[in-house]
Amino acid sequence: MTAIIIETKTSFEEVEIYGKSYKVEFSDAKMEEYDKAHAKMEKWEKEKSTKDKKDFKKDIAIVKDMLEMFFGKEDADVIYNDSGQSSIVCSHIGMQLFKVFKDKMEDFEDKKLEEYLGIEEDTEQKIDSE
Description:
By secondary structure, the chain is mainly alpha-helical. The protein has helices at residues 28-50, 56-71, 73-82, 87-117, and strands at residues 12-17, 20-25.
């Protein structure tokens, strides 16, 4: 009897920042945490754009919290220091990480739809417009 082989994905993505590889976890708990943090970051970006006076200490704290969420305190400190201790640069890193999160979610949703519809991954579907 032949064993059924089930294709699996990893629960993380590797990202490279300043030449060093890091793992971004995609466990259920982390996904929920990322989703909440993404909403918080969007709210922060909106607030920041409407204020006349910038609160740099708050900006730094939010960016550091975001890095710690993705990588833990030790690696977050390394990334922050490698960025020249720039919350602007780290904010850009964070936005790219949230894009990885978003892409991972979209990939998952696309796979669910493909499986539901019975579409093969290698099959190209063409729609004729007449």
